[in-house]
Amino acid sequence: MKKLFFIFNILSFVLLIFTYTSCSGKPRTIRTDTPTSGVAEIIADECFAPIVQEQIDVFEALNDEATIIPVYTNERHAFELFMADSIRVLIASRELTKNEALIIKERKQQLRSQKYATDAIALIVNKANPDTLISVSDIKKIMTGKIRLWKELNPDSKLGNIAVTFDTPNSSTVRYIKDSICGGDPLGDNLRAVAIDSTTAVDIYNRTPNQQVVDYVASNPNALGIIGVNWVSNPNDSTKLSFIKNITVMSVSREDKATFDNSYKPFAAFLKLQKYPLSRDLYIMITDVRGGLPSGFVHFAAGERGQRIILKSGLLPAYSHTRVISVRPSL
Asked: CA-CA distance, 199 to 172, in Å (whole number)?
């Protein structure tokens, strides 16, 4: 009887070892998280930190056993972390290239990528600057250094050099300027970054590079800031038809000559109607689709509740409807 008991114990121990090891002898990963509990890291382009943080706050409030740890950094570093498999959820303004997707496939991971929202690049100026209209063609001339003075845009301007300001050299904002505004033409030497690129994650509760852009423009009458619109939306305006008060958001026109009638501000309705010319799509990508907390957060962010948060933030959600109402002054 004792011998049988001894054999039973040995078999149980072997079975336990087999359960926790793979055929190669390496420990198997035993997940302890669920779609609504556990701890998970995500990477997000710092340009979109306000909206991502708001979604995290709501998700954690709804799921008190879940903790989402965001890493906010510049676009280049964000993709480096994602491609190194350091973090498996990424929010950015471009999808993976074919070569990047192939790397994911070769390491036997399943990539899921979907449109997340439509964002806008906002041009902001000092409150003392009377110039609030600008055309895309003039923006290109400024970014390539062909226009350097405010007088070249408005002969009546009393301001001097245009102090073009952006966040960091490897940000998605700079890539947008190069690709979508300048069409590959080299940038001028008149552009200024407020921060040097770093592999250190950005703390959203301190002065991030995008917050520094706002501060610089607010204190410099000659400044022209380039920034993601979610950094300047008025959080206290439920209609999302206004921006923060210490700067002015310019209206942008596709026509060669910007006028009040053909220029638009980066409101969600004008993004939906494709009136505002400086828009870009945002994507949420995941390589961990096995049903744990990363997958649960992605489902929330791209789902109905998450998309409502995007709409309330002033961006255009990917899967919700924006009501556009035309009002006539008289019948």
From this structure: 15
User: Residue 203 is part of a domain; what is its CATH number?
Assistant: 3.40.190.10
Domains: count for the chain: 2
d(CA 2, CA 58): 58
pTM of the model: 0.82
- Evaluate whether 191 touches 84 at the Cβ level (below 8 Å): no
For 191, residues 6+ apart whose C-beta sits below 8 A from its C-beta are 143, 164, 165, 166
Compute φ and ψ for 318, nearest 5 degrees.
-80, -30
Q: Is residue 237 part of a domain?
A: yes
Structural domain containing residue 102: 40-118+281-317
Residues 51, 155 share a domain: no
Q: Pick left, alpha or beta for residue 25 (phi over 0 → left; psi -120 to 50 → alpha; otherwise beta).
A: left
Average pLDDT of the chain to the nearest whole number: 85
Inter-CA distances, 294 with 63, 67, 176, 215, 304, Å: 13, 10, 28, 34, 17
Residue ranges in 131-250 assigned as alpha helix (H): 136-143, 172-176, 209-219
Strand, coil or helix: what is 122?
strand
- Model confidence pLDDT, tens digit, residues 93-142: 999 999 999 999 999 999 999 999 999 999 999 999 999 999 999 999 99
Residue pLDDT, tens place only, 160-179: 999 999 999 999 999 999 99
- Specify the DSSP element, H or E, that contains 41: strand 38-45
pLDDT (mean) for 312-328: 67
DSSP, collapsed to helix, strand or coil, labels residue 90 as: strand
* pLDDT value at residue 206: 64
| pLDDT > 50? residue 180 | yes
- CA–chain centroid gap for 176, Å, is 12
Residue 133 and residue 260 in contact, taking contact as beta carbons nearer than 8 Å: yes
Residues contacting residue 3 through CB under 8 Å, at least 6 positions apart? none
Residue 87 belongs to some domain of the structure: yes
Amino acid (one-letter) located at 122: A
- Assigned domain for 21 exists: no
